[in-house]
Amino acid sequence: MRKLFLCIALAATILSVSGQAKKPILMVVPSDSYCDRNAFTQEYTAEAGNTRSISDYNKAFKSAESEELRLVISELSKIMADRGFPLKDLEQTLKSIAQSNVELSMLQSSSSGSMVKESPIDVLKRTAQADIIMDIDFSVKIKGPQRFITYNLRAVDAYTNKVITAVAGDGKPSGSASIGLLLEEAVLNYMDDYTTALQNHFDDIFTNGREVVVVLRVWDNADVDFETDFEYMGETGMLGDIMDVWMDDNTVNSRFSRVSGTENTIRYEQVRIPLFKLSFGKERAIDARGFINGLGSMLKAEPFNIQSKVYERGLGEVWLILGEK
Amino acid sequence: MFKSAASYEVQVLGVGQDGTKVFRIWSYDKTVEAAINKAKRDAVAACLFSGLPGSGHTNQTPAICKLSDEETHEAFFQEFFAYPDKKGNGGAYLRFVNRTSDEPPSGKYRVQMKGGYKIAIDVQVMYNNLRSYMEEKGIVKKLGQGF
């Protein structure tokens, strides 16, 4: 009996030590409407010749009018850090990217003078990335002699584009309080509701698995597509249908939605993946990439013999491109 | 019994200082002093089990604990909510609640009823400290625990 208790205690200890799921990155990002209202935008000419504008976050933080934005972000960061979930800072990330761009362009190996290898996609991926975007919008409104704050804060999953939670409303009008004080009050007013909804979202992840997007594609020169027939588990079926079977077997409670499928592309959304997987003899935390590696291994073996390349877009979206690496 | 909102009423007075909640709470007991003590305890119980309603421009505040936590951690909450004895030693709840004024309730905030008094006092609850305490004691989870 004592041995049994020892075994249970040991198992619990191992689980508690290794049981850390991959932590999502949260970042506060000013909303497009906030940037547009304050002229923190950048115009460019699209391929079709029409002019478009996008939010320019560098301009937003360097502007003299960014004081209020910084105040709101600082207050949100402080509250989230107090709750044990520090945020990634957008302004600092932008600075860090600019700095690493300079360093990468100058870095050479000491023996041959070789530059650091970087593909166009590597360059494209050096942007500020977050798994959950805290999209903030606010403005100061005037009502007679009083001012008040209109405030809107949303948490959006960067991969599924689902709104996790949103809080919005008008603050109490005041004729004497500074804008800084009104903004602080607005942040404090909504944060408890907001963090509780985030906690519910995390609880859901632990219960039902992380929700991710999986996209399967084929290289242009591949000699297979998703309509190619294979014999699998004693039956003959199209590769696309076999992919559905694999998803059904490997998602939590078989939860996934095939939203589109052609001979060249299959897109799965609302894919619930487990947080942990047995890998190299140990339970390890996985993200979308770790999940899809299993499919890559299956395709590599008989009867498929298909090489594939995994392209990850973060914790929650992954592409598997069939045909070659 | 602490999670029952039937014995108290709450009116939020505004957005409190960082980490605090300021509200008016009505409670009932045999004497004014007993009703004040009960109101302070009810104020903490409201933050833990029922949450605070929104009012005017103030948003609602969710409860810190789940409804089932009181039964799950019954012994903890019995000790936590213990009334102060004659020497003033009471449960840990006293650390998280302050009255905003020492004045005894009067006028419309002190109503004599059959068998006792219904009183209202303004209180400040250290909401963040209270939640951190519950996290430390393992009653509630920290945000993102498990990541």
Please characterize this protein's 3D structure.
The complex is a heterodimer of chains A (325) and B (147). With 325 residues, chain A is α+β, with helices and mostly antiparallel strands. Chain A has 9 helices and 15 strands. Chain A folds into 2 domains: 22-31 and 61-100 and 117-207, Double Stranded RNA Binding Domain, CATH 3.30.160; 209-322. In chain A, strand 5 (146-157) and strand 6 (163-170) form a beta hairpin. In chain A, helix 4 (67-82) packs across helix 7. The longest helix of chain A is centred in the middle third of the chain and has 30 residues, at 179-208. The radius of gyration of chain A is 24 Å and the shape is globular. Chain B has 147 residues and is α+β, with helices and mostly antiparallel strands. Chain B has one domain (5-136). Chain B is 27% helix and 22% strand. Chain B has helices at 32-50, 69-72, 74-80, 127-136; strands at residues 8-14, 21-29, 97-99, 110-113, 116-125. Classes of the chains: A alpha+beta (325), B alpha+beta (147).
Topology summary:
The complex is a heterodimer of chains A (325) and B (147).
Chain A: H1 2-18, E1 26-30, H2 32-37, E2 41-45, E3 51-55, H3 57-62, H4 67-82, H5 90-106, H6 120-125, E4 132-143, E5 146-157, E6 163-170, H7 179-208, E7 210-218, E8 229-232, E9 235-238, H8 239-250, E10 257-261, E11 265-273, E12 276-279, E13 282-285, H9 288-300, E14 308-312, E15 317-322
Parallel strand pairs in A: 1-4, 7-15
Antiparallel strand pairs in A: 2-3, 4-5, 5-6, 7-11, 8-9, 10-11, 12-13, 14-15
Helix pairs in contact in A: 4-7
Chain B: E1 8-14, E2 21-29, H1 32-50, H2 69-72, H3 74-80, E3 97-99, E4 110-113, E5 116-125, H4 127-136
Antiparallel strand pairs in B: 1-2, 2-5, 3-5, 4-5
